[in-house]
Design brief:
heterodimer, A: 156 residues, 46% helix, B: 243 residues, alpha+beta, Alpha-Beta Plaits, four-stranded mixed sheet, three-stranded antiparallel sheet, 7 helices
């Protein structure tokens, strides 16, 4: 090492680099979230946080555990594949606690949402011009929403 | 998902075990859901869509989507004989309250529900400078809203226009494929509320999922295949005029 006379300032410089690198590691340890990089270049814990959100639509399976009578009416009719909350709205609160009463529904709005006649709709989908069809008589007078065929009778 | 009463009761104990993990905010650890067992996608059956807007309303209610912004929306296309390549497209308030009725039957009408395509090679996650948006191991594109800066690079990068900046949180927001529902064994809010079955949630890693038979036997496309995004929202009988 005798040919390198002025190594002192190089060592001091190297020490500075080492200190800076250790500081970088320490700061990085505190700044980067623990789960970052668990699955990829993102915070792994975010997945569980997003999944933990509460649901608002309970899902038809939840409805059917209590309302088996309506399920049997529905499966026999044309609305077999229309799920409960498609008309009744989000009712997870009611499913968790049956004392929470669901809001009353207005068939004048609900039926027309799907069944208003329009040339833009698929031809095989049942559609009516509400004014000509019933002249203002409410839909449920003749059609029971859970099984809408006339033969099934109106609302009870 | 079709589960009869008997099977639902059989599933209850498993659901009870999973529930404590869900409450603890770590559903990944619950025995019922393993991310790597799934690869989620969506099937949209164009001839079944009636443009009622139920999916848009359900999505807004489930996910608190701000008014005027959409995680899913419905477009109505009108293709006329004299101009096949330039359809007239309308989407009043995202189709939330349905569409104006049409009396005369000139040309061809159809509805196209749109949403995040949960691309396997998503442009939006590639441009994020901080790693706040990502493709989860089960194929769902998610946003870590506590990490997002709100720079909106991803909003510009998405070729489908599926992202927006949340007006109050000031961070990127988008369809999560109802991640909080599908990890609990439920279907998404839009699928649950579609009255005609025009939307179907599908798991490409589940060999028993009807999606596999459907993809083999139908004319199915994705949007903008030329962009090689690996889009996973499959459209049955999509018209060539849809961009």
């Amino acid at each position: 090492m005798s040919q390198f006379k002025d190594t002192g300032h190089l060592l001091r410089f190297a020490a500075l680099f080492v200190i800076a690198f250790v500081m970088f590691l320490v700061i990085r340890h505190f700044v980067v979230p623990k789960t970052f990089g668990e699955y990829g270049h993102y915070r792994g814990a975010a997945i569980a946080e997003i999944a933990a959100k509460p649901v608002k639509f309970a899902g038809h399976e939840a409805c059917e555990t209590c309302h088996a009578d309506i399920l049997s009416t529905k499966t026999a009719g044309k609305h077999a594949h229309v799920n409960c909350e498609a008309c009744h709205g989000p009712l997870a609160k009611h499913a968790d606690d049956p004392s929470v009463t669901p809001p009353k529904l207005d068939t004048a709005v609900l039926c027309i949402r799907c069944h208003a006649a329009s040339a833009a709709k698929p031809k095989d989908f049942p559609q009516v011009d509400a004014d000509q069809h019933s002249g203002g008589v409410p839909c449920e007078t003749c059609h029971q929403p859970h099984s809408p065929a006339i033969s099934a009778g109106g609302a009870k | 998902m079709n589960v009869d009463r008997r099977h639902f009761l059989i599933m209850l104990p498993a659901a009870a075990i999973a529930w404590k993990y869900v409450l603890a905010g770590t559903p990944e650890e619950s025995p019922n859901y393993t991310m790597t067992d799934h690869w989620w996608s969506m099937l949209i059956d164009i001839p079944k869509c009636i443009g009622c807007g139920n999916c848009v309303r359900a999505c807004a209610a489930e996910n608190d989507v701000p008014d005027g912004l959409f995680r899913t929306w419905v477009e109505r296309y009108h293709v006329t004989d004299y101009d096949m390549v330039n359809p007239q497209v309308i989407s009043p308030d995202g189709g939330k309250e349905g569409f104006p009725t049409v009396a005369e039957d000139a040309g061809k009408y159809f509805f196209v529900p749109k949403m995040c395509n949960h691309c396997a090679d998503s442009p939006c996650t590639q441009v994020c400078p901080v790693g706040a948006t990502f493709v989860a191991p089960d194929g769902v594109v998610l946003v870590d809203q506590t990490y997002c800066l709100g720079c909106a690079y991803c909003v510009q990068a998405c070729p489908y226009g599926c992202r927006y900046i949340h007006p109050e949180k000031r961070v990127a927001d988008k369809c999560t494929l109802c991640y909080h529902r599908i990890t609990k064994g439920l279907t998404t809010a839009c699928v649950e509320n579609c009255p005609t079955g025009a939307r179907q949630l599908a798991d490409l890693k589940n060999p028993n999922d009807p999606i596999h038979a459907f993809l083999k036997t139908h004319h199915v496309q994705v949007l903008k295949p030329q962009m090689a995004t690996g889009a996973k929202v499959f459209y049955n009988e999509l018209d060539g005029s849809v961009r």
